[in-house]
Design a protein that fits this description.
Length: about 400
């Protein structure tokens, strides 16, 4: 946190993680407050591989609030952005009047500049809005000296963003109150809880998705009978999933994760007109995972897909090297010099003929663009190094 008294500009920079749901959120009961029709549960990914970074500057010299996203100035009047700004300011005023904490009065009266970047493709189904809004809310809170529960505010930026306010294993409790005050995220276990758990993101397409989640779930709520049925079975699934995580029961964790992903995509197909997020390559990945597991007679790798064709694979350390090799074999990379494996390193191993003969699938060249190898990670972080601010001394983006 830097404060330049002369120019009265205060700068704060933070980072926030991506989360990938294993019990999916799909459908709202209140569009404006972003209240879901079911609880959900996710794993927070490590920020060494995927993160949003946000700098907020407050100065009496600023004429208006402004925002730059991934290098481009955007409209600050976006309703969800305004909800987050309004709610943070409201909370800061409330805490100040109750004499709580070290809430900063100076910054409350100043206009702010916001600059945010992701180190991964936006809107590619890699939950960029979750990391983005979590980062914005966390950074604004630090600017105003606010501590404590903030997921209720992040939720009003993007539903899944509330889960990115914590590291490790996180549930978003749907809540029952009309004002949404009990619709919050809670950590189930910290990032250190299950050290063997590994995550591979198979990037099938980095293009923008055809139907965004907000519009998609709105149509599903209106038209899908399967989604109504889903709300009845999710409570039991949530309980089982929490148990599986607490016990580090990969078999149960994996079965529930795959079934919930499949049910979410079945709901998309049950939506009218139907929504297709899975591509042919996604379906091949699903088959590959099932054949791989059935060869070994146990659940070694599991898949889940969000509102896009990219697969997120959960597995354990002892299977990462082999599964990456299997993916390379069935989706041989394009030889265009682009790195196929990003993130944490893997050791090259050979895939046995026996395994290949049980999988029996035709390889598809360049079906997968690249793999990101990552693990479970912590929640949002304050960046102390002032060289890393995205806004310069003039309050404008550095590049
Ligand atoms: C399929 O949180 O992006 O990734 O609340 O409208 O912003 P809004 O939707 P968003 O939806 C995420 C849907 C999902 C499942 C999940 O992350 O739980």
């Amino acid at each position: 946190m830097a404060e330049d008294k002369g120019k009265e500009m205060k700068l704060v920079t933070c980072t926030a993680p991506v989360n990938i749901a294993v019990i999916k959120y799909w459908g709202k009961r209140n569009e404006e407050l972003i209240l879901p029709i079911n609880s959900s549960l996710s794993v927070t990914l490590h920020q060494d591989q995927l993160k949003s970074t946000t700098t907020v500057a407050a100065s009496r010299d600023f004429k208006e609030d402004r925002i730059w996203l991934n290098g481009k100035e955007e409209n600050i009047n976006h309703p969800r952005l305004q909800s987050c700004l309004r709610e943070i300011r409201r909370l800061a005023r409330k805490r100040r009047s109750s004499g709580d904490g070290n809430s900063n009065t100076l910054t409350l009266h100043h206009k702010i500049h916001i600059c945010s970047v992701n180190n991964f493709p936006t809107a590619a189904g890699l939950a960029s809005s979750a990391a983005g809004y979590a980062c914005l809310v966390y950074t604004l809170a630090k600017l105003h000296g606010l501590e404590g529960e903030l997921s209720e505010i992040a939720r009003q930026g993007s539903g899944s963003a509330c889960r990115s306010m914590y590291g490790g294993f996180v549930q978003w409790i749907m809540g029952v109150k009309e004002d949404g005050s009990d619709s919050i995220a809670q950590q189930i276990e910290p990032e250190t809880h299950w050290p063997e758990l590994c995550i591979l993101i198979l990037v099938v397409s980095a293009e923008q998705k055809p139907v965004g989640s907000t519009a998609g779930m709105r149509t599903s709520v209106k038209t899908s009978p399967l989604l109504k049925y889903r709300t009845e079975i999710v409570p039991k699934r949530m309980k089982e999933m929490i148990e599986a995580i607490k016990r580090q029961d990969f078999e149960l964790f994996g079965q529930l994760t795959m079934k919930d992903s499949n049910q979410f995509h079945a709901t998309c197909l049950d939506t009218f007109p139907p929504i297709f997020y899975l591509s042919d390559i996604s379906k091949r990945i699903i088959n590959l995972v099932h054949r791989y597991n059935s060869h070994f007679g146990e659940t070694r790798v599991v898949y889940t897909f969000d509102a896009g064709p990219n697969a997120v694979i959960y597995t354990r350390k002892q299977h990462v090297d082999e599964f990456v090799e299997v993916v390379k074999h069935y989706f041989p990379p394009e030889e265009n010099g682009e790195q196929f494996l990003k993130g944490l390193p893997v050791n090259p191993v050979s895939v046995s003929e026996h395994l290949k003969s049980s999988i029996r699938m035709e390889p598809v060249k360049a079906g997968i663009q690249y793999i990101i190898n990552t693990r479970v990670g912590p929640g949002p972080q304050l960046i102390e190094d002032s060289n890393l601010h995205l806004l310069g001394e003039d309050g404008l983006p550095k590049q």
